[in-house]
Amino acid sequence: MLSIKVPPLGESITEATVSRWLKNEGDSVAAGETLVELETDKITVEVPALKAGVLAKRGRAEGDVVKVDDVIGELDENAAPAPRASTPTAAAAPSPTATSPAAVSPAAPPAPSVPATTQPASMPAARRLGAEAGIDLAHVTGTGRGGVVSKPDVIAALAAQPAQPASAAPTSRPPSVVPPPSAVRRPSSDSPRESREKMSTRRKRIAENLLLAQHATAHLTTFNEIDMSAIVALRERMKEKVEKEHGVKLSFMPFFAKAAIMALKAYPVVNAQIDGDSLVYKNYVNLGIAVASEAGLVVPNVKDADSLGILGLSQEIVAIAKRARDGKLTMDDLTAGTFTITNGGVFGSLISTPIINYPQSGILGLHKTQDRPIAVNGQVVIRPMMYVALSYDHRIIDGQQAVLFLVRVKELMEDPASMLID
Q1: Which helix (H) or strand (E) holds 220?
Q2: Are both 238 and 184 inside the same structural domain?
Q3: What is the pLDDT of residues 321-338, one digit of tens each?
C-alpha cells in the first residue's frame, strides 16, 4: 500500500485545504494522474499518483486542513482495476436490457452509480446549495474546469426553475422576476435558517493580509476622475485590427497598466517599499493585477511590466488572468509584485477605496465607466467618465506625490498618444 502525502507547497506555506478529490475509492489510477487538488493561500496544488493502481482510501475529506507530509490517502499499487471496468460495461450494454425483462433487475442497482460518479465533480458550496434547494447536480451543467459544477451553476439552475410553476401561480410573483436563492430555499420546511461554512485556507490568509495592510500601514486614499472619451475612441478604432493580427481582445486594462507604469517612473516612491528603517526603491515594475476567481481573490503579477508595450501588456494580463481562473498559477506569478491595479468596475462599482496589497505601498483602483454631465469650455456636455482611486502608505508617500501620480495617470489616459513618448 502506497501512502498519498501532501507534497511541499512552496516557500513559507505549511498547510492547505483539501479542495477536491478527482478520484473515488476503488477507482483505477494511472501513474501521473491527478488524485486530489489542494488549495493553499496562494495557489492550487495538484497531487498526482506516483504509480498506477487503485485508490484504496481517501483519508481526508474535502474542506479538511492538512499540513506538508500529512497522509491524505492510500493507493493500492497491486490491486486489479477490474471493478472499475465492469461499471461502464453494464451501463453500455443496452441489448440484454431490451431483449429480456429479467435483464432489467440486475441492471437496476448500477444505475445510481452514474450520478455517484458525477456528483463529486462539483464544488462543496455547489453540493450544499443543491442539497438545500433540492437540485440534482447530475442535471446541472458545470462551467468550471473539467466540467466541475460550481455554486453559480446551481444558482443558474435555480433561476431557471420558476419558469415552470409560474403559470400555476401567476399572482405570487411576476414571471420576469428571477428569485434569489434564498427565496427559493425559504418554502422548504427542513431548510435551515442559517448555515455554517468553514473558511478555506486561502480565505483565511486573504483576511489576515487585509488586516495586516490596515494595521501595518498609514492607509490613505485619494481620488480623481478621467474623461474616457479619447481612450474609448482609440479602443473602438483598433480592437478589431488588434484581435485579428494579434489574437488579443483589447480592453482598457493594458492602457491603464501603461499609464500607471509611466506614472511610477515619474514618481518612483509610489513603487518603493519600506524595509525596517530603510526605503527600497524598485527600478523595475512587477505589476500586480487583482483577479477574482471562484477560489477567492488572487493578485498575480506581470514581471518587468515596464519593458512591455501596450500589446505586450495586454497579452500578459490575459495570460495571467486565465491561469488565475484555471487555478494554474505558480508561486513565481504571485510573488515579488511592486504595485497593483484592481478593477471593481467590471462588477459595476462606481467608487471604492482599495486596500494596499502589503508590503507594497500603492494600489490603483479602477471603476465603472459611466456617462455623466461635465463642464467643458463653459459648456455642459455628456462624457464617459471613470472615477479612479489611489490607496497608498502615507508613511512613505506624501499626499502631494500621491495626487501628482494620479493626475499623471489621468493626463495619459485622456491623451493616449502621449503614452507613445516614453
Answers
A1: strand 219-227
A2: no
A3: 999 888 888 888 888 999
What span, in angstroms and rounded, lies between the C-alpha atoms of 284 and 265? 9
- Whether residues 261 and 306 share a domain: the answer is yes
Q: Is residue 295 part of a domain?
A: yes
Domain total for the chain? Answer: 3
CATH code of residue 30: 2.40.50.100
Q: Is residue 226 part of a domain?
A: yes
- Residues 244, 385, single domain; the answer is yes
Single-letter code of the amino acid located at 350: L
Cell numbers representing residue 218 in the block: 498609514
Q: What is the pLDDT averaged over residues 101-118?
A: 41
The domain that holds 230 is classified in CATH as: 3.30.559.10
Residue 283, classified by CB atoms within 10 Å of its CB into exposed (0-12), middle (13-18) or buried (19+), is exposed
385 and 286 within one domain = yes
Q: Do 290 and 368 share a domain, yes or no?
A: yes
What would the grid cell of residue 173 be? 410573483
3-state secondary structure of 422: coil
Rounded Cα–Cα distance for residues 343 and 55 (Å): 43
Distance CA 402, CA 218 (A): 13
Q: What CATH number is attached to the domain comprising 136?
A: 4.10.320.10
DSSP class per residue in 2-50? EEEEPPP-STT--EEEEEEESS-TT-EE-TT-EEEEEE-SS-EEEEE-S
Give tens-digit pLDDT for 4-18: 988 887 666 778 888
Tell me the C-alpha distance between 215 and 99, whole Å: 74
State the residue range of the domain holding 52. 2-80
And the C-alpha cell for 323? Answer: 491561469
Q: How far apart are CA 118 and CA 140, in angstroms?
A: 10
Residue pair 16/40 in contact by the 8 Å Cβ criterion: yes
* 334 falls within a domain: yes
Report, as residue numbers or ranges, the catalytic residues: 394, 398
In tens, the pLDDT along 213-249 reads 888 899 999 999 999 999 999 999 999 999 999 888 8
Pair 388, 365: CB distance under 8 Å:
yes
379-399 tens-digit pLDDT: 999 999 999 999 999 999 999
> Grid coordinates representing 113?
452509480
Q: How confident is the model at residue 146 (pLDDT cuts 50, 70, 90)?
A: low
Nine cell digits for residue 183: 427565496
What values do phi and psi take at 328, rounded to 5? Answer: -110, 20
Residue type for 321, please?
Answer: A
User: Considering the domain boundaries, does residue 134 fall inside one?
Assistant: yes
Looking at the structure, tell me whether residues 319 and 182 fall in a common domain.
no
